[in-house]
Structures are given as structure tokens and as C-alpha cells.
Amino acid sequence: MDRTLAGDLARLPELLQAARDVAAREVAGLPGRPVAAPGPAPGRAPLPAEGVGGEGALAYFTERWAPGFSGSAGPRYLGFVTGGATPASVAGDWLTSAFDQNLSGAGGSRAEELERETVAWLRELFGLGAEHSGAFVTGATMSNTVGLAIGREWAGERLGVDVSRQGAAALGPLDVLSGSPHSSVAKGMSVLGLGRDRLRRVPLLPGGREAVDVAALEAALAERAGRPVIVVANAGTVNTVDFDDLRAIAALKERYDFWLHVDGAFGAFAALSPRHAALVDGLDAADSVCVDLHKWLNVPYDAAVQFTRHRDLQVAVFHNASPYLGLPAGEPEFLHLTPENSRRLRALPAWFSLVAYGRAGHREIVERNVTLARRLGAGIEALPGLRLLAPVRLNVVCFTLAEDPSEERVARLARAVAASGEAFLTPTVYDGVPGLRAAFSNWRTTEADTDRVLRVLADSACRDVN
């Protein structure tokens, strides 16, 4: 064994203690550090010929790279839809690496059953029935892709084509209908050989809504009668967190034959709050569901879950047959359910957080974030230099400049906010107008953080944009 490696093994407790100290300082200092990383990255160094050991690497990292990392785990990083990592989930994530379980199958470990237990808890959390089975994947993009892949197999079954064996070409054109699809849907269609051009956008409800017009969806289904179709419904759009009427869409299945996939990447968490649970009424009727956990469950990247009512079709798509793996039988091992063979135990951080804080703790995070989003929205409405682009429906505030909201001026506002170190927002275009989004999903965010974001927005809109 290499002497440096042997030395690290002998001093593993000290190395882990040193890493713990760095991590603890980082987590404790998040509220006070710049939210966006200032300045350029250091130039690339050559590959070391000789190692310096774990503690040397830790020192090099903290000096050279750590200062340039963003405060994305902190309370005022409102870009994209970004959660933090609860203390318990951080502990679970550390242990995930320490135990280093390969969740391709049981492999003499009970880790697989821990994932099954976690998936069952999540199924209950989101109001799904026992007919839904699931597995952990890397994120919403992969969860949506898995759902579409199973839907593609379903379409083949309707047409007498074994897509998993014959390929997507044997299936022929397969339309995917959606009102406001997330970009990951088109990406998944590209990966699956369905083609981005088969994504058909269905008209939306009037009045600046991002929810699909169910009557228009029915007309689109009627036009395609006799041909399988996939419908992607949205439980929370990215810009305004608008919700399709899932119950009404599911009712169309009585008259039309289609696969219903629901993208509930973060909107599915409305189910945790009695005040907002009606938004996801009908989610249980979906054939497949996407939920992203490193968003509103606040577990470390990368973690999402996919659910489906059709495990047999899922196995048909993803099974991996070889002498050393065996064929799926009974309760399929996870290597037969997702694109990956080797899989990290992503369920452990989620398991830790669910045990540590329970349904009530995670409900409090959701409801507090919604309250804070509305607080920021009300503050923006009161500022003369800014205006809301849409109502604050849940946890995202979509807004722009009150005057001349050009792409250049809005981008300048975003840069000014980031340069302040106080907050980070991401751009969007809503109804043809460039704007910004502030997405609340971090467990640490407070009223004081929200007020700091509002102050920097007011200051930046006044000084840096005009």
C-alpha cells in the first residue's frame, strides 16, 4: 500500500475531524458569506506527481477553491429552485460515503431495504397510493426521463411493439402533449429517441396562466384518437408555480387512451400543507410522477425520486440481464428499475431528514417558504422600480423592472444583486417579458433574509440599472 495512503488510514479519525471542522465552519458561516462567488477562478494546476495526504489536500482545497464556492446552501440563494441541506441530511450524506454501499442490488446488504422504506415514506408524504412504486435517481431530469421511458414502453405495448427490444424507430412518431413543459422533458425525449420536435404545446388558460387549458388538451387528444399519446402535466411550473388541473386531466382517461406523467419536481411538496394540498389533488391518478428531493426536501445533491403504477413496464425498459446479476424476480432490485447499475445510497440522507424532522418539520419548511415568498412579492409590489409579472401562487416570485424591462437591463439587475453578495436570482422570460425569479425552498430562510433581499433589490434597481 502506498505510504501516504497507509498514513491516511492510520490517521483517519484526525482527517475526518479536520474535515468536520471545515464543514462546521462553512455551515455556521453561510448566513454571513457572499451568496455568489466573487472574482475569477484560479488557474488550473498540474496533476500532482506525489500526493500530500488527506490533510494536505484539505488545506489546499480550503485555501485555493473553497473561497470561490457559492453560498447555494444558504438562506438567500433564491436562484433556480435550490434547497439547502438539513443538519440530519448532512450527517446521513457523510455516512453514505463512509458505508459506501452500491445500491445496484442487495449484495449482502440491507441498504436496499432502507431505500424501499424511504420510498414508501415519500409515497405517503405526497399522497400516492400503494400502487405506486419508486426508486431514487439523480434529479428531476432523470426522473422525468424515466417516466417518459416507461410511457414509451406503454405506447409500444398498445401498438404491439416491444420498444425495449426493437427500438424507438419501430414505435413510430409518439406525441407528447403539455402546456408548460420544463426543459428537461424535451431533453428526455431527445435521449429516448422520441425527438424534441414531437413535444406538442397545448394552449394555456387565459389571463397569463401557465396551466393547460383542459378543453384544448381534450381536443388535442381527440385529434389523435387511436394513436397512443403521452401527456405531461405540471404540478408547479418553474416561473409562477401554476398547477394543471390534475383531477380533470385524469378524468379524460375515461374517454382517451394516454399515459399521464406528472412533473411535480417541487410543486408536489404542496401535498405537505393542508392549505395547499388541493393543488395536487389527482396526483395519485398519474401513471408516473417526478419529484426532486434536493429542492424542497432539503437533502444534499443529487437526489430525486420517480414513481410509477407500472413496474412491469419499468422492468421491461431497464432490466439488466447477465449471469452475475440475474434476472428480475419478485421485488426487482434497483438495477432493473433505473438507467444506473451502480448506485449511491441516495436514500440515506432523505431517510435521516425524514426521521429527524418528520412530516411536521418538513411541512413547516414548506409553509414558511410560501409565507416568505408572499412577503417578498408584497414588498416588490410596493417598490416603484419593480413589478410582479404574476401572482405569487406558492414559493416563487416572478418579477421585472417597472420601466423598460429589456433583457439587458434585467440582466444588469441580476448582476448587481449577485455582486452585492446579498442574494442570487436567476433570469426568466414570462409571457415574452424578461424577468427574474426568486425561488424559496431553503430550510434556513427567515423573514430577516427576505427583507435583506428586498433591500438589495430596491437599491440595485435604483442605482445599478438606471
UniProtKB/TrEMBL annotation:
Record's keyword terms, sorted: Decarboxylase, Lyase, Pyridoxal phosphate
Record-linked Pfam families: Pyridoxal_deC
Gene3D superfamilies: 3.90.1150.170, Aspartate Aminotransferase, domain 1, Type I PLP-dependent aspartate aminotransferase-like (Major domain)
InterPro entries in the cross-refs: Aromatic_deC (IPR010977), PyrdxlP-dep_de-COase (IPR002129), PyrdxlP-dep_Trfase (IPR015424), PyrdxlP-dep_Trfase_major (IPR015421), PyrdxlP-dep_Trfase_small (IPR015422), Pyridoxal-P_BS (IPR021115)
Source domain of life: Bacteria
Needed co-factor(s): pyridoxal 5'-phosphate
PROSITE patterns (alphabetical): DDC_GAD_HDC_YDC
Family statement: Belongs to the group II decarboxylase family.
Protein name: Pyridoxal phosphate-dependent decarboxylase family protein
Record organism: Streptomyces eurythermus
